[in-house]
UniProtKB/TrEMBL annotation:
Family under the similarity heading: Belongs to the glutathione peroxidase family.
Residues in the signal sequence: 1-15
Taxonomy, superkingdom: Eukaryota
Organism this protein belongs to: Symbiodinium sp. clade A ex Anemonia viridis
SUPFAM superfamilies linked to this entry: Thioredoxin-like
GO biological process: response to oxidative stress
Name of the protein: Glutathione peroxidase
This protein's record includes keyword Oxidoreductase: yes
Amino acid sequence: MRLSLLALCPAFAVAGTMPSSEFYALSAPNSEGGEFKFEELKGAKVVVITNVASECGATASNYADFKKMQKDMQGAHVVAFPCNQFGRQEPGSDAEVMAFAKDRGLKVNEPGSNFHLMSKVDVNGPDQAPAWKKLLEVTNSVNKKTNWNFATKFVVKCDDAAEQCSVTRVDGFGTMETLRQKAPEVYSSKGGEL
C-alpha cells in the first residue's frame, strides 16, 4: 500500500460553480511557448489542475499518479502549472520541466494527451497566473494561499448541457486520493491501491 505524504495531511476543501463558457474561455501559456486554451478540455469527465515541481518530496508519487491517470482513466485530464515559489524546487526552464515529465513516461501536450503542462508561473502573490486566480475566486478561497507544491488541486467537472462547471479546491491530498474522493466516477481500480 502506497500513500503520498500529502494524503496524510488534513484536507481542506471548498467548492463553487462557474458558467462552462467562463471555464472554457480560460487560457495559459504552455511549456512550449504556445497558448493552451481550456476549451480543449471540452468533453473531459474531470480536470485536475495543480501546481507541480521537479525537486519536491511529493514529485515521484504525484507524477506516478499522473501516469496512472494517463493509462487508466478515460476522460480525466491534468493541467499542471510548474511553480518555483516553494523551496525553489522547480528551478529548470520550461523545456527542462517538459523533458522531466516526459522522462517519467508522460505524453505531454501531445494531440490526444490528457496531461497539459503549462509554462512556469506563480500561484501566490501579485504575479499569480490569471487562470489560477480565477479558480481561487470561483472557490471563494482567494485569501487562502497555496502552501506547497502539489498541495492544492482544483477538481473541475463541467456539465455542458447545463452550461455549468463545479470547481472544488482540495488541499492536502495526493492526486489519486483527491480523485477517489472528489471524482469517484473516473477512479479506476486498475490503477492499483493507494
